Amino acid sequence: MSSKKSKRGRLGARGDLVVDEKQGTLSAYGERFLLIPVKLIHAIEDRLTESFGPITATSFQYEIGKEGGAQYVRLAQKVGIGIKGFSDVQRIASSLGTLDGWGKVEIVDFDFAKKFARIRWKNGVSVRNRKGKTAVCHFGRGVLTGAVEEIFGRRLESIEVSCQGKGDRFCEAVVGEPKEISRLIETRP
Length: 189
Ligand SMILES: [Zn+2]
Prior knowledge:
CATH class of the largest domain: Alpha Beta
Order of helices and strands: EEEHHHEEHEEH
Bound molecules: zinc ion
CATH topology of the largest domain: Muramoyl-pentapeptide Carboxypeptidase, domain 2
Protein backbone atom coordinates (compact mmCIF):
# COMPACT_ATOMS: atom_id res chain seq x y z
CA MET A 1 0.00 0.00 0.00
CA SER A 2 1.20 3.51 -0.68
CA SER A 3 -0.07 6.62 1.00
CA LYS A 4 0.54 9.00 -1.83
CA LYS A 5 -1.22 9.15 -5.10
CA SER A 6 0.17 6.88 -7.78
CA LYS A 7 -0.29 7.57 -11.43
CA ARG A 8 1.57 4.59 -12.76
CA GLY A 9 -0.56 3.16 -15.46
CA ARG A 10 -0.09 -0.51 -14.82
CA LEU A 11 -1.97 -3.39 -13.38
CA GLY A 12 -0.51 -5.79 -10.95
CA ALA A 13 1.06 -4.90 -7.66
CA ARG A 14 -1.32 -3.89 -4.95
CA GLY A 15 1.10 -1.06 -4.33
CA ASP A 16 -1.38 0.86 -6.45
CA LEU A 17 -3.96 0.76 -3.67
CA VAL A 18 -4.27 4.23 -2.19
CA VAL A 19 -5.69 4.64 1.30
CA ASP A 20 -6.96 8.13 2.05
CA GLU A 21 -7.72 8.12 5.76
CA LYS A 22 -8.82 11.76 5.77
CA GLN A 23 -11.47 11.20 3.13
CA GLY A 24 -12.29 7.63 4.14
CA THR A 25 -11.66 6.28 0.68
CA LEU A 26 -9.68 3.53 -1.01
CA SER A 27 -8.69 3.75 -4.61
CA ALA A 28 -6.79 1.76 -7.18
CA TYR A 29 -6.21 2.40 -10.86
CA GLY A 30 -7.79 5.84 -10.38
CA GLU A 31 -11.16 4.41 -9.29
CA ARG A 32 -12.70 4.08 -5.86
CA PHE A 33 -12.78 0.57 -4.38
CA LEU A 34 -14.42 -0.87 -1.29
CA LEU A 35 -13.14 -3.51 1.07
CA ILE A 36 -16.15 -5.43 2.34
CA PRO A 37 -16.59 -8.63 4.35
CA VAL A 38 -17.46 -11.61 2.12
CA LYS A 39 -20.32 -12.27 4.55
CA LEU A 40 -21.95 -9.11 3.23
CA ILE A 41 -22.08 -10.77 -0.19
CA HIS A 42 -23.61 -13.83 1.47
CA ALA A 43 -26.22 -11.63 3.17
CA ILE A 44 -27.16 -10.13 -0.20
CA GLU A 45 -27.45 -13.63 -1.72
CA ASP A 46 -29.60 -14.87 1.17
CA ARG A 47 -31.87 -11.85 1.18
CA LEU A 48 -32.44 -12.07 -2.59
CA THR A 49 -33.24 -15.78 -2.31
CA GLU A 50 -35.64 -15.25 0.61
CA SER A 51 -37.45 -12.38 -1.07
CA PHE A 52 -37.60 -13.52 -4.68
CA GLY A 53 -36.88 -17.26 -4.74
CA PRO A 54 -33.77 -19.02 -6.00
CA ILE A 55 -34.32 -18.55 -9.76
CA THR A 56 -34.87 -14.79 -9.64
CA ALA A 57 -32.11 -14.41 -7.03
CA THR A 58 -29.68 -16.25 -9.32
CA SER A 59 -30.61 -13.99 -12.20
CA PHE A 60 -30.19 -10.82 -10.10
CA GLN A 61 -26.75 -11.87 -8.89
CA TYR A 62 -25.68 -12.84 -12.39
CA GLU A 63 -26.88 -9.61 -14.02
CA ILE A 64 -25.40 -7.40 -11.27
CA GLY A 65 -22.14 -9.35 -11.56
CA LYS A 66 -22.08 -8.75 -15.31
CA GLU A 67 -22.12 -4.99 -14.74
CA GLY A 68 -19.17 -5.32 -12.35
CA GLY A 69 -17.22 -7.44 -14.81
CA ALA A 70 -17.61 -4.84 -17.54
CA GLN A 71 -16.32 -2.21 -15.10
CA TYR A 72 -13.17 -4.23 -14.40
CA VAL A 73 -12.34 -4.44 -18.10
CA ARG A 74 -12.98 -0.72 -18.63
CA LEU A 75 -10.63 -0.10 -15.72
CA ALA A 76 -7.93 -2.20 -17.39
CA GLN A 77 -8.43 -0.35 -20.67
CA LYS A 78 -8.30 2.98 -18.87
CA VAL A 79 -4.85 2.26 -17.50
CA GLY A 80 -3.67 1.32 -20.96
CA ILE A 81 -3.82 -2.45 -21.00
CA GLY A 82 -4.29 -3.67 -24.55
CA ILE A 83 -6.39 -6.80 -24.71
CA LYS A 84 -5.07 -8.54 -27.77
CA GLY A 85 -4.22 -12.03 -26.74
CA PHE A 86 -4.52 -14.83 -24.22
CA SER A 87 -1.70 -13.54 -22.02
CA ASP A 88 -3.33 -10.08 -21.73
CA VAL A 89 -6.54 -11.70 -20.55
CA GLN A 90 -4.71 -13.89 -18.06
CA ARG A 91 -2.87 -10.81 -16.76
CA ILE A 92 -6.15 -8.97 -16.18
CA ALA A 93 -7.63 -12.04 -14.49
CA SER A 94 -4.60 -12.30 -12.21
CA SER A 95 -4.49 -8.65 -11.23
CA LEU A 96 -8.16 -7.70 -11.05
CA GLY A 97 -9.60 -11.11 -10.21
CA THR A 98 -7.10 -12.99 -8.10
CA LEU A 99 -5.38 -10.03 -6.42
CA ASP A 100 -8.71 -8.37 -5.64
CA GLY A 101 -9.70 -11.45 -3.66
CA TRP A 102 -12.32 -13.01 -5.93
CA GLY A 103 -10.47 -16.33 -5.87
CA LYS A 104 -7.61 -17.81 -7.86
CA VAL A 105 -8.62 -17.21 -11.47
CA GLU A 106 -7.17 -19.10 -14.42
CA ILE A 107 -8.03 -18.65 -18.09
CA VAL A 108 -8.27 -22.12 -19.65
CA ASP A 109 -9.38 -21.11 -23.13
CA PHE A 110 -9.99 -17.71 -24.70
CA ASP A 111 -10.97 -17.83 -28.36
CA PHE A 112 -11.18 -14.36 -29.91
CA ALA A 113 -12.48 -15.75 -33.23
CA LYS A 114 -15.24 -17.94 -31.82
CA LYS A 115 -16.12 -15.50 -29.00
CA PHE A 116 -15.75 -18.27 -26.50
CA ALA A 117 -14.03 -18.54 -23.13
CA ARG A 118 -13.48 -21.17 -20.49
CA ILE A 119 -12.43 -19.78 -17.11
CA ARG A 120 -11.57 -21.71 -13.98
CA TRP A 121 -11.29 -20.47 -10.40
CA LYS A 122 -10.82 -21.72 -6.87
CA ASN A 123 -11.98 -20.24 -3.55
CA GLY A 124 -14.86 -18.24 -5.05
CA VAL A 125 -16.63 -15.91 -2.62
CA SER A 126 -20.01 -17.67 -2.92
CA VAL A 127 -18.71 -21.13 -1.97
CA ARG A 128 -19.67 -21.65 1.69
CA ASN A 129 -19.56 -25.44 1.76
CA ARG A 130 -19.02 -28.29 -0.68
CA LYS A 131 -22.37 -29.99 -0.23
CA GLY A 132 -24.70 -28.21 -2.66
CA LYS A 133 -26.59 -29.90 -5.46
CA THR A 134 -26.13 -27.08 -7.94
CA ALA A 135 -23.46 -24.50 -8.80
CA VAL A 136 -23.49 -21.47 -6.49
CA CYS A 137 -21.20 -18.86 -8.06
CA HIS A 138 -23.85 -16.79 -9.82
CA PHE A 139 -22.32 -13.47 -8.85
CA GLY A 140 -18.79 -14.48 -9.84
CA ARG A 141 -19.95 -16.12 -13.07
CA GLY A 142 -21.73 -12.85 -13.84
CA VAL A 143 -18.55 -10.85 -13.24
CA LEU A 144 -16.61 -13.12 -15.61
CA THR A 145 -19.34 -13.05 -18.24
CA GLY A 146 -19.57 -9.25 -18.11
CA ALA A 147 -15.81 -9.01 -18.46
CA VAL A 148 -15.73 -11.33 -21.48
CA GLU A 149 -18.70 -9.47 -23.03
CA GLU A 150 -16.80 -6.22 -22.68
CA ILE A 151 -13.67 -7.69 -24.28
CA PHE A 152 -15.56 -9.24 -27.23
CA GLY A 153 -18.00 -6.32 -27.52
CA ARG A 154 -21.12 -8.42 -27.70
CA ARG A 155 -23.79 -9.97 -25.56
CA LEU A 156 -22.89 -13.40 -24.19
CA GLU A 157 -24.21 -15.96 -21.75
CA SER A 158 -22.55 -18.55 -19.58
CA ILE A 159 -22.92 -21.71 -17.58
CA GLU A 160 -20.96 -22.91 -14.55
CA VAL A 161 -20.04 -26.45 -15.57
CA SER A 162 -18.10 -27.29 -12.41
CA CYS A 163 -18.42 -25.77 -8.90
CA GLN A 164 -16.61 -26.25 -5.60
CA GLY A 165 -19.96 -25.49 -3.94
CA LYS A 166 -21.18 -28.93 -5.06
CA GLY A 167 -17.96 -30.74 -4.27
CA ASP A 168 -16.06 -30.31 -7.55
CA ARG A 169 -12.30 -29.67 -7.44
CA PHE A 170 -12.69 -26.19 -8.94
CA CYS A 171 -15.27 -23.86 -10.39
CA GLU A 172 -15.39 -23.48 -14.15
CA ALA A 173 -17.57 -21.37 -16.40
CA VAL A 174 -18.04 -21.52 -20.13
CA VAL A 175 -18.86 -18.14 -21.69
CA GLY A 176 -20.09 -17.85 -25.25
CA GLU A 177 -22.76 -16.84 -27.74
CA PRO A 178 -26.25 -17.26 -26.20
CA LYS A 179 -27.25 -19.94 -28.70
CA GLU A 180 -24.05 -21.90 -28.05
CA ILE A 181 -24.68 -21.78 -24.30
CA SER A 182 -28.33 -22.85 -24.75
CA ARG A 183 -27.16 -25.77 -26.85
CA LEU A 184 -24.65 -26.72 -24.16
CA ILE A 185 -27.31 -26.56 -21.43
CA GLU A 186 -29.70 -28.74 -23.46
CA THR A 187 -27.12 -31.39 -24.24
CA ARG A 188 -25.65 -31.65 -20.74
CA PRO A 189 -26.23 -34.98 -18.96
ZN1 LIG B 1 -18.61 -22.24 -8.19
